[in-house]
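In this section we walk through a basic example: taking a raw amino acid sequence and producing a predicted 3D structure, encoded as discrete structure tokens. The instruction is simple. Fold the sequence below.
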Amino acid sequence: MVKQYLCIAGLILSVFVSGCAGIGDSKDIKIGGNLEMTGSTASYGQSMSNGIKLALKEVNSSGGVLGKQVTFTVADNKSEPSESANAVTKLITQDHVSLILGAAASSNTIAAAQIAADNKVPFITPFSTNPKVTVNDGKLNDFAFRVCFIDPFQGTVMGQFATKTLKVKKAAIFIDNSADYSKGLAQYFEESFVKNGGEIIAKEAYLQKDQDFKATLTKIKASNPDVLFIPGYYEEVGKIIKQAREIGFTIPIIGGDGWDSTKLVDIAGPDALNNTYFSNHYATDAKTPEIVKFIEAYKQEYGQVPDAPAVLGYDAAYMAIDAIKRANSADPLKIKDALVTTAGLQLVTGNISLDENHNPIKSAVVIEFKDGKQVYKETINP
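The resulting token sequence is shown next.
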């Protein structure tokens, strides 16, 4: 009986919070950001925040949405799953937002996903590529959406790139065992690489905040791979690549979109990054009208070239605005329903339609580092 009362109380709280987040008599439309502003992946959250703020500045300068200005409140998840859950709870219960953008890291987004769903507030993650963000244990989270491609596609892209473009046969994988993102991406890369005739000859692991990787890298080097796949985040990836080159690794080193940070070159050094490649959401040297316009606006606002988290934050904000316009409301449930039907939306990273699992159907690009500069290598379509 006590359990039943608790369930009823939870439902009442959920409805109350959802109702508070609606447009009501508010003079503005409230969007929240669950972002990594500090901690080990702070570069992602800071870039995403910049991209989101730029998009909303443009929207508000053009008259806002539904005759109202859009406000953006950021809660710092400190790059930790438990803090991500706290951040989303704060945005919903204290700030009464209608929609949440974030988080960046898949582990942080997964940790907060059920809280958003329980309170019936939709969220769009710009950068979390693990499939469990939207579908966990076979169940679709009705309130979870994203603008980025997912790891099964990203892993397949890099498996194909390694075998067909680099034409390598033997791969080693170095996994971040503390990140859902890294473990998932490693799985799909391995499946793709083996399917295309390759062999995984070594698999090793590290943890976030590790500093010295040379002993494990020496072990990997002894297995004589043709390529090293590191599906990790920029902080550790930069140190791994730097130390790998220091012990004589000359083979190609490849990875996923978690590499894309303005900090990576600072950590690894431009020379060490030569002969490295990673999958990404857009190429800064592409010349589409959307990319050129966005980069010019971002550079004018922040004085630097935007990385993938920045452009995806920008795209996520515009996906949110599109849904609010089509819902003709800032009510979270109506926004959720509008997000489900997102189709043919032209964003900087491509023309986006969401599939039945709330994932966008879009291409990936492979980026090569040359003397510390990112250079477009090729596009791989779904």
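Looking at the output, two observations stand out. The CA atoms of residues 3 and 9 lie 10 Å apart. Residues 1-24 have pLDDT under 50 and may be disordered. In the next section we compare this with other chains.
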